[in-house]
Write a structure and sequence with these properties.
Keywords: Acyltransferase, Transferase. The protein is built from 8 helices and 7 strands. By secondary structure, it is of the alpha+beta class. The chain has a single domain (about 5-200), classed as Aminopeptidase. It binds coenzyme A.
Length: about 200
Amino acid sequence: MDNIYIEKYQNTDFRDVIALLVQSFKSKFCRHQKLSNNDIENILYASWHLKSDDPAYLHFVAKQNEKVVGVILIRCRKTENANKNIPIISLCRRYGVYNVIMMCTKMALLEGHKLNEGESYIEHIAVNGTCHGKGIGILLLQHGEQALLDMGYTSYTLAVAGGNPAKHLYLRFGFEDIKKTKSRLKGYFLGESQWTIMKKIYNHV
Ligand SMILES: CC(C)(COP(=O)(O)OP(=O)(O)OC[C@H]1O[C@@H](n2cnc3c(N)ncnc32)[C@H](O)[C@@H]1OP(=O)(O)O)[C@@H](O)C(=O)NCCC(=O)NCCS
């Protein structure tokens, strides 16, 4: 891997991380709405608050020449209503009520997992398309795992959509299928109705 390194997410990475997520999950963000990448990025930028010192998350980025090429966000505690300051009115004026409601609904559906005691949950993992298959995804999972182990966590959980080939990566990393879920709402809003919850359990306590 050419000069790839992993570091803790900094607030200055926010724009780059959003651009990477929009690129990686474009089909979900664009479902039933026509927005440019730039518009989606601006809505996320205004409505989502990812602070590097938020104790509810472990957050790492992969960089190459100081450019963000990968990201993993792991939730390990209950969040304190992080989205409370969404500038709904100005967003609706600019992008339309429909687009803003659609985006907020999609975000809520993507973030809907309830944490159990000792559990941590991968909110998202993504690698820039031009860098796929170079081991960056594994590196991000390993970094997250080590941080969780250091903090005494007992399990690593995620949800993967039915046909996502990323599942191979998770199986290879030691995750196992725990439960299959079906959601018409997710099918309608995100284009994926079948999801698998996967878990990796650590027996170090
Ligand atoms: C999933 C993702 C983060 C993997 O990152 P990556 O850096 O390419 O992963 P790695 O190089 O470490 O590992 C590659 C492994 O992932 C699996 N994999 C991931 N995406 C794949 C794809 N599109 N086709 C085939 N295999 C894929 C394979 O098992 C592969 O292993 P192999 O090379 O031995 O066959 C990346 O594909 C991505 O950003 N996808 C879009 C966003 C996404 O779907 N995220 C997961 C949400 S649950």
